[in-house]
Amino acid sequence: MAAVLNSNVASLWASKNLQGAQSKMVGSVERLSSGLRINRAGDDAAGLGIANALTQQINGANQGVRNLNDAISMVQTAEGAIAAAQEMGQRILTLATQGSNGTLGATERNAIRKEMRQLLVAIDSIGTRTKFSGNSLLANDIAGGTGFTIQVSNTTSDVLTLAASAFERIGTGTTSVSSGTIAGGDAGWTTSSTGSGRAAALANAVNAVATGTDETQANQLSVLGAAKTYVENLSAQRSLLGAYQNQIEFTVSNVTELSSNLSAARSNVQDTDYASETASLTKGQILQQAATAMLAQANQMPNVILSLLK
Fold first, then answer.
1. Burial tier of 193 (Cβ tally within 10 Å: 0-12, 13-18, 19+)
2. What is the Cα–Cα distance from 183 to 212, expressed in whole angstroms?
3. What is the rounded CA–CA span in Å between residue 227 and residue 206?
């Protein structure tokens, strides 16, 4: 190589290598300090796109788990209310069994009917007050109504449907039932024969006695059959809610595992491998020191020209 003054080629190369070593060190420090292999699109454009897509799925799955847990709470709320109504239905069934006994008189049966009616009023109250996030849980008519859809992930079609039959009305389905004074002919306590609630037939059986007429053994037998059907219907409704709860819990387990696997996949794409990165940092530090030393040596090389000029 010619001995020249205007261009110190060795110094230029040493400077270039020093800048490269420093740039790599800056990148290593950034990755080690942030914990991310991809801090900007330029680091890995394709990897950034994959990581963002995985993040969408993870966020959707995590929110889906929360939605499902809310659904479990909602189902448990409805099932608890039906359990209370079923206890009252069982009490009406017991009373009807007692009233069907031929040893009782009209006075005793009238007293039994009064308690039955108060129990039906209480069942209606349970159905009215049972709500979750403002949604009435036991307000669907037997003839129709709507259930609930639970969003499981950020995919529009990924939903879990809870049928309306699980949230049917447990009361009479009418507004004509009141807890007013029950005396004489029991005027003021009536229910429509076309009531749309599960208790409508039971209420009609309890209320079958005409105004001013005493309760009979035959009437109590009618109540006995209606009460048995009512309790069985509530059992079927509770069973459906229990099946939904089990389904939701299994779904929670599945979506939670999905979120964990997606998080592991995202980590492989965007997280810093500290073992590898610390090795790169150490290498960069050594190269920086070597390049700095060589740059200093290269800057001294033109001095040899002075000896030629002496």
1. exposed
2. 9
3. 9
Q: How many CB atoms lie under 10 A from the CB of residue 4?
A: 10
- Centre a 10 Å sphere on the Cβ of residue 21 and count the other Cβ atoms it contains: 20
Q: Would you call 105 exposed, middle or buried from its count of C-beta atoms within 10 A (0-12, 13-18, 19+)?
A: exposed
Distances (CA, A) of 15 to 10, 18, 127, 282, 292: 9, 5, 82, 20, 8
Q: Residue 241 corresponds to which tokens in the numbers above?
A: 């809610």
Q: Are 200 and 172 in contact (CB under 8 A)?
A: yes
* Predicted pLDDT at 88: 95
Confidence of residue 175 (pLDDT cuts 50, 70, 90): very low
- Domains annotated on the chain, with CATH: 66-268 (1.20.1330.10)
User: pTM for the complete prediction?
Assistant: 0.79
Tokens describing residue 229: 């059907």
Percent of the chain with pLDDT over 70: 88
SS3 210: coil
Residue 170 clears pLDDT 80, i.e. is over it: yes
Q: Which residues is 136 bridged to in the sheet?
A: 131
Sort 183 into a burial class: Cβ within 10 Å, 0-12 / 13-18 / 19+.
exposed
